[in-house]
Amino acid sequence: MRVDLFDFDLPPENIALRPARPRDSARLLCVGAEGPFTDHIVRDLPGLLRAGDVLVFNDTRVIPAQLEGQRGEARIGATLHKRVDLRRWQAFVRNAKRLREGDEIAFGAGVTGHAEARHADGSWTLFFPGEEPVEVLLERAGRMPLPPYIAGKRPTDEQDRADYQTMFAAKDGAVAAPTAALHFTPELMAALADAGVRTETLTLHVGAGTFLPVKAEDTDDHAMHAEWGTIDAATCDRLNAARAAGHRVIAVGTTSLRLLESAAGEDRIIRPFEGDTAIFITPGYTFRAVDGLMTNFHLPKSTLMMLVSALMGRDRMMAAYAHAIASGYRFYSYGDSSLLLP
């Protein structure tokens, strides 16, 4: 399928550089299989769902995975995107042409990384020596890895450490936030519970590959970066029971959706999963695990634009995005949200 089928023009002023405050005051576009689109705010969500629906959240926690350092006179930037083991991370490297295997990079605050191996996609494995956990080193020397479309317009600051983290964040490992869940607050969660909406969590450590542009002209030629995730047996049992009882499973965010679909078989049963997934969902895919999706608005020609088009139909999503742009919705990680119910 041609990648340019998922292109659209987005005015720069529609790109959000800060989140809505309070978080649940962001706008919410409701998109059904047919009929008019309806405009709401996230706080309206309890009235848009049914008692018995299950929202599935990703409890990954974003680590400050953006590092700036020196190798001799050369400035080297590194964005960690996938853990290899306790002391090694795979990283996208800026100014990588100045790096050789065995080089040491000084990232400041007493943190160094060794360039161990270059990969075919241009990324590097970096080894962090020492006794302290790598996460401790990152808290000292790293910055929150804001998406390029935000970081290119303003510097990362201390406020982003709170803003770019969901209320569900519990397990270190993501280098990008599961942004659909940024809109939730304790007050909204209480209102959802009062409405009979249930919640579950899983873990998918989002990688920086989520921001990489699709450079291929055809979707068949695009290689997804793998991300690690897990969902346990008890959670699977509850989700399967909910669907068997006629209730809907609605993923909060494309990361939750991708792990649920990775864990489900052709029989539509969700099974325990732990490991890497590189699932790539494009139109024509048959969904096995989810009945809806809450998600922010995505980049043109991105794998996530393809995913939502697979769920709702390309023409329906292009029309929804045209409505959102014309109505002044805010796009991308800090932007507004949509509720997609096929």
From TrEMBL:
EC class (word): transferase
Name of the encoding gene: queA
Pathway note: tRNA modification; tRNA-queuosine biosynthesis
A cellular-component GO term for this protein: cytoplasm
Similarity comment: family membership: Belongs to the QueA family.
Name of the protein in its database record: S-adenosylmethionine:tRNA ribosyltransferase-isomerase
Assigned keywords, A-Z: Cytoplasm, Glycosyltransferase, Isomerase, Queuosine biosynthesis, S-adenosyl-L-methionine, Transferase
Subcellular location: Cytoplasm
GO function terms (MF aspect): S-adenosylmethionine:tRNA ribosyltransferase-isomerase activity
Known catalytic reactions: 7-aminomethyl-7-carbaguanosine(34) in tRNA + S-adenosyl-L-methionine = epoxyqueuosine(34) in tRNA + adenine + L-methionine + 2 H(+)
Biological-process GO terms, alphabetical: tRNA queuosine(34) biosynthetic process
EC numbers on record: 2.4.99.17
Subunit structure, as described in the record: Monomer.
Keyword match Glycosyltransferase: yes
Keyword field contains Hydrolase: no
Function: Transfers and isomerizes the ribose moiety from AdoMet to the 7-aminomethyl group of 7-deazaguanine (preQ1-tRNA) to give epoxyqueuosine (oQ-tRNA).
